[in-house]
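thought: fold this chain, then report.
action: predict
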Amino acid sequence: MTAPGDDVRAVEATLFAADAPMTPAEIADYVGPDVQVERALSMLAEHYAGRGIELVERGKRWHFQTAPDLAHILRRERDEARKLSRAAVETLAIIAYHEPVSRAEIEAIRGVQISKGTLDVLMEAGWVRPAGRREAPGRPLTYATTAGFLAHFGLRSRRDLPGIDDLKAAGLLDPIDAAMGQLELETGADED
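observation:
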């Protein structure tokens, strides 16, 4: 036969290890028929009253819960992984390779307009920040990457970004795009 203290400890251990609230009958199935489950529950509830965790009965089922006045301490914001749109990825790459860069410059490089939402998504992610205004007519706002961008992508600095040869070797550049880029380079050299 177990000592009264052992009964309480057995019920406490059973509830602690349970993944769902338990009825006294379910607890008795674990601790054995000789244990006074109701008495042990009463003693435990009294022992945990006013502490960081409490033993509570809800719907004839018992479980441990965080004290209601401390629940705010345990709340955490959860980051939801969002997949970036193609426009956002292209915009991020342009900013990373050409910073500081204005919206007009991003659009000229991409060949299409970007929505304000695209830049907002990148700024909310903490990867892009406003980098001041260009000394040009209209004083356009420029954008640059952040330390969060470098940390997320495992870069020590922007110098660690892959170059064109690295991107070609990884198969990340379309051969037609690469050929067009080379043709533009050669055409530009001929005009000089």
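thought: worth noting. The chain has two domains: 4-74, 86-174.
final: tokens above.
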